[in-house]
Design goal:
This protein is of the alpha+beta class. Helix content is 33%, strand content 23%. It has a domain of 71 residues. The strands form six sheets. Strands 11, 12, 13, 14, 15, 16 and 21 form a seven-stranded mixed beta sheet that branches. It has a five-stranded antiparallel beta sheet with strand order 3-4-18-19-8, with helices on both faces. The protein has a three-stranded mixed beta sheet with strand order 5-17-20.
Length: 442
């Protein structure tokens, strides 16, 4: 009975999802239509194109945020199986203007199979942008990559996004009753970030699909590939945001510049490499020189000394969070007989001059170890205190991942292909309001 109720609830959610897809625009009729006669007088299906407005996207994300991860995967599988519900590729590109078209052309010519490129160059409109999947993909993407959901998004102002980076907010003076106001201004430097294209092509053969269905194994290989592609894009973006570099070819995963990729953008490891960064060696006294808590508080104080900014979270490799938690084990207090005792501690926040800041674990090795030349060539990993109000992700096309659906057989093979892609950059508009701690590795 419970399973039946759950399925009915899920079906109702999918019905709501489809109803919210957006307004449909009918194809305009001819100005002087001929009077239909004979077979032409019979009813014919109307062609329509369904687009989702930003308001629709936002409303759907709010609704999907209440769903469990299992429900989202089930909704994604059911919605993905709905064919012919996408927006024609050429219509989607035209709606985005020259920047979107040029960015997509760059993706096609640089990293897509030649057969697929030939398909996308045709005028048949067979390739579809699956906007109906984007809200579910966005929510699943955020759950794979929590930092993404906390950073602001803004439309990019070109293939390379240009912005003003604050280095000093200027000053003010006291003045007499009839004094003349003194001119002053903030100090900015002009910065740019590449709007990088990240993509993966996924698909399964028709034979594989038939075999899975007829075996009764109960899984859909297409959905597994789409979920894998989503995780791959989340991992790639996470690596770049925290540890990547795009302008200095000397950057590697083992130095403070970060791994170089000319097609990507520069990340936080390099941007926050400043004299304000704090070093700590946990192998020394955990209450003084080796205290991670003290190092985080010192890094926060360095931000406060700039006279502005307010970090909202600390992102770190799970190993640093675990080491910080272990430093607190000796400081536990007995809560009394009314509360059961569980060995160990797991710290989810730390007190700083800004108050309590949450600790956010970044899964995987996106915050990896490197050799810090500014810290006696020690091997370190970073912990990032970020003022997310001064950081944005410029985008082209869509805020979240987009799916291009290429039907079976269109490229000459019995394979259903999906291209999952996104076009994003990283704009740190006031690096003085964020900071990092270099934690020495044993």
């Amino acid at each position: 009975m419970d399973d039946e109720v759950t399925l009915k609830t899920l079906q109702a959610s999918l019905d709501e999802l489809r109803e919210m897809v957006g307004a449909q625009a009918e194809t305009p009729a001819a100005l002087t239509p001929a009077e239909p006669v004979g077979i032409e007088a019979q009813a014919t299906p109307e062609t329509s194109r369904t687009f989702m407005s930003p308001t629709d996207m936002f409303a759907m994300r709010q609704m999907l945020r209440q769903k469990s991860t299992q429900e989202l995967h089930a909704m994604f599988a059911m919605q993905a199986s709905q064919k012919n519900t996408g927006v024609p590729l050429e219509a989607w590109l035209a709606a985005g203007g020259t920047s979107r078209s040029a960015a997509y052309e760059s993706m096609v010519t640089s990293g897509v199979d030649p057969q697929v490129t030939k398909l996308l160059d045709t005028g048949g409109g067979a390739a579809l942008i699956r906007q109906d999947l984007e809200p579910i993909l966005y929510e699943l993407y955020v759950r794979e990559f929590p930092a993404w959901g906390r950073m602001g998004k803004e439309p990019a102002n070109g293939l390379v996004h240009t912005y003003q980076q604050l280095t000093d907010f200027g000053g003010a003076v006291f003045m007499g009753e009839l004094g003349t106001v003194t001119d002053d201004e903030s100090t900015y430097v002009r910065q740019t970030t590449n709007v990088a294209i990240v993509a993966t092509r996924r698909g399964v053969s028709l034979k594989n699909q038939f075999a899975a269905l007829q075996s009764g194994s109960g899984f859909n290989p297409e959905n597994l590939e789409l979920q894998g592609g989503l995780r791959a894009i989340a991992k790639k973006m996470q690596d770049q945001i925290f540890s990547g570099h795009a302008t200095d070819s000397g950057g590697t995963a083992a130095n403070e510049l970060g791994l170089y990729d000319a097609n990507a953008f520069t990340g936080l490891r390099s941007i926050l490499n400043s004299v304000r960064a704090v070093n700590v060696d946990p192998a020394t006294d955990p209450d003084t020189t080796g205290s991670i808590r003290r190092a985080l508080a010192d890094a926060a104080t360095q931000i406060m000394q700039q006279g502005g900014g307010k970090p909202g979270i600390i992102w770190a490799n799970p190993w640093e969070i675990e080491e910080f938690s272990q430093q607190q084990e000796a400081k536990q207090r007995w809560p009394g007989p009314a509360v059961g005792i569980a060995p160990g501690t797991e710290v989810d926040g730390v007190m700083t001059p800004f108050g309590r800041l949450a600790l956010g674990p970044v899964p995987g090795d996106s915050i990896g170890a490197y050799t810090a030349t500014t810290y006696s060539s020690n091997s370190v990993r970073d912990m990032y205190l970020l003022d997310e109000t001064s950081i944005s992700m410029p985008y082209l096309g869509s805020e979240g991942p987009t799916v291009l659906d290429i039907p079976i057989g269109i490229a000459g093979q019995l394979t259903h292909l999906y291209i999952i892609f996104g076009m994003w950059g990283l704009a740190v508009k006031a690096p003085i309001f964020s900071n990092k701690v270099r934690v020495k590795q044993a």
